[in-house]
Amino acid sequence: MDNSLSFAKRLKKLNKNSTKILLYEIGLDKESKEILYKRYVEEMSLVEIANELGYTKESTNNLLAKSRRVLEDIILEQYELMPIKLQMIADYLYEL
């Protein structure tokens, strides 16, 4: 695995269908799911997301970073418990 690629960059490279499956089936809270979806599936900018959700750009950036950490923690800590299709997406995500 190429450790130089951040988790955020890996998510950006993941195809949209895989991202949707991952976000909706991994057990994220609604707010994390929504902000990650807007960023990585709809490819909205931080400003666009902030305007749509009524947050500041800084708050949006902080929430996005927190949501990515939560997602990555779930993947790393609960990998063995995840359904096989989520494991396959996680495997691919870490091969990017």
What would you note in describing this structure?
By secondary structure, the protein is an all-alpha fold. It is 73% helix and 0% strand. It is built from six helices and no strands. The protein starts with 6 loop residues before the first helix and ends with a helix.
Which SSEs are present, and which pair or pack?
Elements lengths: L6 H7 L2 H10 L4 H11 L5 H8 L3 H22 L5 H12 L1
Helix content range: over 70%
- Total DSSP helices: 6
Number of strands: 0
Q: Quick check: average pLDDT?
A: 94
State Rg: 13 Å
Largest sheet: none
The poorly predicted ranges are none
What structural class is derived from the secondary structure elements?
mainly alpha
What is the helix/strand order?
HHHHHH
Instruction: Please report which band the strand proportion falls in: under 5%, 5-15%, 15-25%, 25-35%, 35-45% or over 45%.
Output: under 5%
- Give the overall form: globular
Distance between the termini: 8 Å
Write down the oligomeric state. single chain
Give descriptors for this structure.
mainly alpha, 96 residues
